[in-house]
Amino acid sequence: MKKILIFAIILIINSTNIFGQSHTKIKVPQFEDEYSKTVSVLENGETDIDYKKFRESFLKSPQFKIAKEKRSKINELEKEIYKEMSNSNYEEIKKLTKEILSIDYTNMNAHKILRQTYKILEDSTNAHKYKTIQFGLLKSIVNNGDGKTCETAWPVIQVSEEYFILDMLDSELIEQKVDNNGGMCDKMKVVNSEGEKSTYYFEISKVFEGRKNLEQ
C-alpha cells in the first residue's frame, strides 16, 4: 500500500513539473488585425509567410502602441534573461523571452534566444520553428538591399532592428547620423571585433511612419 502511495506521489510531482514547464505561452494580441492574426499563424507553426509585410503590419496594429509603452518592461526582461543565462535556467529563459514576444513578436533577439534555448533542451521542433521566424524577419530586411549606400539601405521599422543586425555582424557602433542623400537613412559607422571599420545604411521612413501612428 505504501509503495502504491509513494508511486502515486511521484506521478503527481512529475506531472506538475511537466505541466509547469509547458504552461507559459506567447499571448496572441486580441485584435482583429493582420498583425494579430499572423502572430497566431506563426505560433501554430505555419512559418511560410511574407515577413516584410508582417513587420510592417505591426506598425498599424494597436499592439505597436502597447509595445512602445512597455519598452522599459522589455528592457527589464532582457536583463533578466541574461542573468538567467549565467545560471543556465532554461525554463525561466523560455518564460521571459515569451513575455517579450507577447509584447512584440517582431523582436528578433527574443526569437534568437528562444530558438537557442530550445536547441539546448533538444526540442528540435521548436528550435526549428523559432529559427525560421528569426531568419525570416532578418532576411526581410537584409534581402531588400545591401546596406552599402542610402539608395540600397536595409529597410527597418524600428531602431532596435538596426542594433540587432549590427550585433549579428559582430560590429560596435562608432557614430550614427541621419543621411538624406538618396533617401531617409541612418548612417552607422562601426568597427568589428578585428578592428575593421565599415559603414552601413538603414532606410528609416517606416520608423517615422511608426512614430506618426503613435500620435494618432
Automatic annotation (TrEMBL):
Pfam families: DUF4919 (PF16266). InterPro entries: DUF4919. It comes from the Bacteria. This is DUF4919 domain-containing protein. It comes from Christiangramia lutea.
